[in-house]
């Protein structure tokens, strides 16, 4: 899982490539490098271990001149992070950057070594460089050489390749890893993701698996790996470059937390039918008949998206009265899970590229289920394989810890439930209208909660920053939020945290409690309130420091907790949209006070395209 970028045009390419890599660093950041066609018909390479700034220093010491080049930011899969394992990899006249994993790397390495190649690194990528180089040696042009080499590869790749013999072009190819081509005026770009290209162009050409392209300053030629021409219209992307920047916030994560009201507005736009108290469901890809006939909904996802699906199950069962099951994608795939016709599989993924979710959804589709993707990245792999796609419009999410995508996923799952509920006659028009109106008010309410709780939550984070364990408890729709609150804290502040259904506390986690453990207990005024307050008291009786997240004016919660975070009274189905906000802020401030790398926490990556 890495980020790749390429430029061909009239400008000096190194600054453009570095800028693109900076925007892709969220994909991995253990080493980085550039390869450029230098004057005099040579390819020159600079690589550095660690974050991009190390590569920038290397380039300050030894600049790279040239107008055609490729770049890479790495997240190690084969071979530890080191300069020799950093990309680009060079073999003779050929340089390659790669995102993905070549599965047959072992036999290829043996074969190349037996043929006399000296392989410098432990990576699978260097083998690709040698394979292409050998074809070039036999007289093929770069395009033909790449095509021939691709025929030897099994696995996932997005690659960009240079040859010293053809200094005016880059050849790119894609299979199962993302790659987008940016179309400029007299210049062309490629990258793993859209934000890298936004400052330069909004016109993007999305490559499909099994395709390759030849990029020159004034042209792009797209073909299949087999050689057939492909015609495809570019798409215009509305995200502004500023949206992909930090916009004055200290970290992307904080910016993205505060962007949630806007993200929610964009996600709801055009989808709420307020006139009829309904949801416009054309993107869901089901006829009214299909909606009635669904036997079961199967929700597949990983990480934060998985937590959204737990809430999604509760929404679907309550509002659409359709049985819903949740599966962690990596546990679903490869199993003899019972799935097939009549099942609607909802694959939820911010990136749309998470390999486990992609493969799980494909398996379900092969067995006859219909697949609906809920994804944030337009044109990504999961939406492309799905039968229909219901995008979240959160805009680019750069912080590795997902925030605004989580809340917009909740919104799409709730809209899906309302749409199905109406079609299936499971809710009244009146109830559906209440939910639609509640959704429409959410952007404003979320803004109030963010502004109203920010300072208090920052103070609490400072007070409890040294806690070694934190417990998060919630019932019903507050349970996935407890899980999500704990995950956020673990991810960015490296504090051990457990999210638990409040009712399960007595079956284990209660043993963890003592006076050093903050317990964040979600007790909004909902049908579970009384029992949740009892759990809160149980924690307090064992001397936990109790922080309650409760509905405004809840005197009981105030009395029984040490600290109280209040959210406004809303329909209980909408509480997760609000309770999650202070928990995101809490994790953020703890991490910030600890001084961790909030946007790029250790060992994590934004998009996980490995198994
Ligand atoms: C990684 C990210 C998480 C994300 C998960 C699923 O672990 O660090 O923030 O929730 O992948 O990603 P997806 O793009 O499928 O939502």
Put the structure in a nutshell.
This protein is α/β, with parallel strands linked by helices and 611 residues long.
Task: Write up this protein.
- The chain contains 18 helices and 26 strands.
- The chain has 611 residues and is an alpha/beta fold.
- The protein folds into 2 domains: 3-245, 4-Layer Sandwich (Glutamine Phosphoribosylpyrophosphate, subunit 1, domain 1), CATH 3.60.20; 253-594, Glucose-6-phosphate isomerase like protein, domain 1 (Rossmann fold, 3-Layer(aba) Sandwich).
- Helix 14 (429-463) runs parallel beside helix 18 (575-594).
- The longest helix is centred in the last third of the chain and has 35 residues, at 429-463.
- It is globular.
- 6-O-phosphono-alpha-D-glucopyranose binds next to helix 9.
- Residues 302-305, 349-351, 354, 357, 400-402, 604, 606-608 line the site of 6-O-phosphono-alpha-D-glucopyranose (G6P).
């Amino acid at each position: 899982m890495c980020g790749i970028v390429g430029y061909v045009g009239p400008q000096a390419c190194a600054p453009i490539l570095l800028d693109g890599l900076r925007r892709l660093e969220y994909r991995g950041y253990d080493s980085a490098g550039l390869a450029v066609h230098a004057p005099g018909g040579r390819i020159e390479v600079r690589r550095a271990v660690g974050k991009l700034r190390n590569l920038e220093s290397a380039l300050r010491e030894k600049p790279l001149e040239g107008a055609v080049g490729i770049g890479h930011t790495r997240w190690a899969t084969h071979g530890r992070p080191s300069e020799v394992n950093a990309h680009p990899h060079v073999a003779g006249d050929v340089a390659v950057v790669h995102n993905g994993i070549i599965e047959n790397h072992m036999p290829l390495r043996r074969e190349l070594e037996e043929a006399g190649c000296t392989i410098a690194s432990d990576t699978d990528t260097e083998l690709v460089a040698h394979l292409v180089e050998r074809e070039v040696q036999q007289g093929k042009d770069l395009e033909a050489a790449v095509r021939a080499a691709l025929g030897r590869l099994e696995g996932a790749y997005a690659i960009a390749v240079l040859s010293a013999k053809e200094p005016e072009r880059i050849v790119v190819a894609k299979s199962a890893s993302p790659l987008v081509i940016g179309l400029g005026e007299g210049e062309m770009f490629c990258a793993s993701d859209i934000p890298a290209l936004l400052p330069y162009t909004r016109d993007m050409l999305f490559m499909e698996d099994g395709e390759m392209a030849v990029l020159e300053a004034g042209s792009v030629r797209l073909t299949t790996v087999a050689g057939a021409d492909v015609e495809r219209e570019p798409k215009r992307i509305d995200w502004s470059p500023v949206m992909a920047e930090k916009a004055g916030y200290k970290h992307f994560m904080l910016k993205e937390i505060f962007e949630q009201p806007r993200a929610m507005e964009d996600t709801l736009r055009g989808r709420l039918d307020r006139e009829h108290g309904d949801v416009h469901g054309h993107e869901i890809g089901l006829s009214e008949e299909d909606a009635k006939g669904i036997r079961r909904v199967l929700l597949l996802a990983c990480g934060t998206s998985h937590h959204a699906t737990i809430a999604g199950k509760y929404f679907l069962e309550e509002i659409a009265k359709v049985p819903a099951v949740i599966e962690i994608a990596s546990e679903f795939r490869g199993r003899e899970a019972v799935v097939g016709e009549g099942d609607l599989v909802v694959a939820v993924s911010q990136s749309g590229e998470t390999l486990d979710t992609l493969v799980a959804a494909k398996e379900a589709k092969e067995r006859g289920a219909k697949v609906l993707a809920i994804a944030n990245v337009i044109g990504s792999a999961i939406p492309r394989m799905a039968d229909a796609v219901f995008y979240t419009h959160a805009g680019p999410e750069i912080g590795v810890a997902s925030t605004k995508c989580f809340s917009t996923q909740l919104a799409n799952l709730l809209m899906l439930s309302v749409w199905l509920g109406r079609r299936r006659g499971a809710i009244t028009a009146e109830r559906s209208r209440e939910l639609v109106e509640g959704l429409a008010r959410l952007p404003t309410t979320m803004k109030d909660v963010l502004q109203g709780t920010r300072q208090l939550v920052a103070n609490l984070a400072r007070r409890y920053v040294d806690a070694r364990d934190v417990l998060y408890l919630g019932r019903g729709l507050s349970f996935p939020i407890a899980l999500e609150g704990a995950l956020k804290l673990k991810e960015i502040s490296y504090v051990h945290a457990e999210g638990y259904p409040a009712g399960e506390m007595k079956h284990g986690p209660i043993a963890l409690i003592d006076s050093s453990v903050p317990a964040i207990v979600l007790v909004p005024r909902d049908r579970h309130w009384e029992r949740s307050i009892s759990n809160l008291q149980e924690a307090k009786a064992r001397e936990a420091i109790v922080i309650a997240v409760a509905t405004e004016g809840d005197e009981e919660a105030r009395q029984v907790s040490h600290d109280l975070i209040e959210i406004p009274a809303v329909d209980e189905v909408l509480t997760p949209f609000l309770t999650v906000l202070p928990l995101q802020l809490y994790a953020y401030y703890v991490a910030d006070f600890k001084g961790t790398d909030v946007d790029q926490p250790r060992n994590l990556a934004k998009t996980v395209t490995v198994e």
